């Protein structure tokens, strides 16, 4: 997504359950040196994980940031979780960039997508 | 949260799994008349659902909006899903406010919270 800033914004679609998602909610510190570069690198890396399905991100200016990553199964998510470069970025995040964060890892049981031109219920 | 706009922003904490979450990602239309009032009413209503745990929200200006609602169990979420006033708001949302949206309902298996002053792994 960072590679295509000109693309129209759209939510990640609904997939056929079951699949996994990781909700990462955070409030950042004032010291964001290196953050943008690391974040771009993480977006690049995660796309190489087999079973990675996509990511939604929103940030209220000066407020909460919410990122949701979608994965085909628990193995795909575990591979991302244990990636060495990702773990190093997490350590730096705790040391420098995040005032606080919460991670929720969950198995999707039901999903639904709507758009003005089409809609699809998957379960 | 809309009742306390002056409160410091913080992510909803990690709860003891299992619990449920609903990720709602959306892109809005240009016609948002009535949206703010309805949204405030929904925030008021959802807090009355037994088993409602909290909500995270972020919106990138002009871009994606991500809302994550947390519930103690599937029954609590079902009660919210079938609430008559909520369903009416959903219908109006599809007719007027949303260009597109996706809903993912998932059962949380693992969660973790970090803050500068404390951190806690719940599973």
Please give the structural blueprint:
2 copies of one chain form a homodimer.
Chain A: E1 19-28, H1 35-46, E2 52-59, E3 65-71, H2 74-82, H3 84-97, E4 98-115, E5 119-121
Antiparallel strand pairs in A: 1-3, 1-4, 2-3, 4-5
Helix pairs in contact in A: 1-3
Protein name (chains A, B): Antibiotic biosynthesis monooxygenase
GO molecular function, one term (chains A, B): monooxygenase activity
Keywords (chains A, B): Monooxygenase, Oxidoreductase
Q: Strand tally of chain A, please?
A: 5
Largest sheet of chain A: 5 strands, antiparallel
What class, by secondary structure content of chain A?
alpha+beta
**In the CATH scheme, what's the topology name of chain A?**
Alpha-Beta Plaits
Uncertain spans of chain A, ≥5 residues at pLDDT below 50? none
What is the mean predicted local confidence, pLDDT of chain A? 91
Identify the quaternary structure here: homodimer
Distance between the termini of chain A: 27 Å
Radius of gyration of chain A: 15 Å
Rough outline of chain A: globular
Largest interface, counted with CB-CB under 8 A? A-B, 45 and 45 residues
Strand content of chain A: 35-45%
Q: Which CATH-level-2 architecture of chain A?
A: 2-Layer Sandwich
What is the domain total for the residues of chain A? 1
Biggest sheet strand order of chain A reads 2-3-1-4-5
CATH C-level name of chain A: Alpha Beta
Number of helices of chain A: 3
């Amino acid at each position: 997504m960072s590679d295509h800033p000109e693309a129209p914004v759209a939510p990640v679609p609904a997939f056929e359950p079951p699949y996994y998602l990781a909700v990462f909610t955070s409030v950042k510190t004032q010291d964001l040196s290196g953050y943008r570069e690391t974040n771009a690198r993480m977006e690049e890396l995660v796309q190489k994980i087999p079973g990675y399905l996509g990511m939604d991100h929103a940030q209220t200016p000066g407020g909460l940031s919410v990122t949701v990553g979608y994965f085909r199964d628990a193995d795909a998510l575990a591979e991302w979780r244990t990636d060495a470069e990702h773990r190093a970025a997490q350590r730096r995040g705790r040391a420098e960039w995040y005032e606080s964060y919460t991670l929720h890892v969950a198995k999707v049981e039901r999903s639904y997508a709507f758009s003005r031109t089409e809609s699809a219920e998957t379960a």
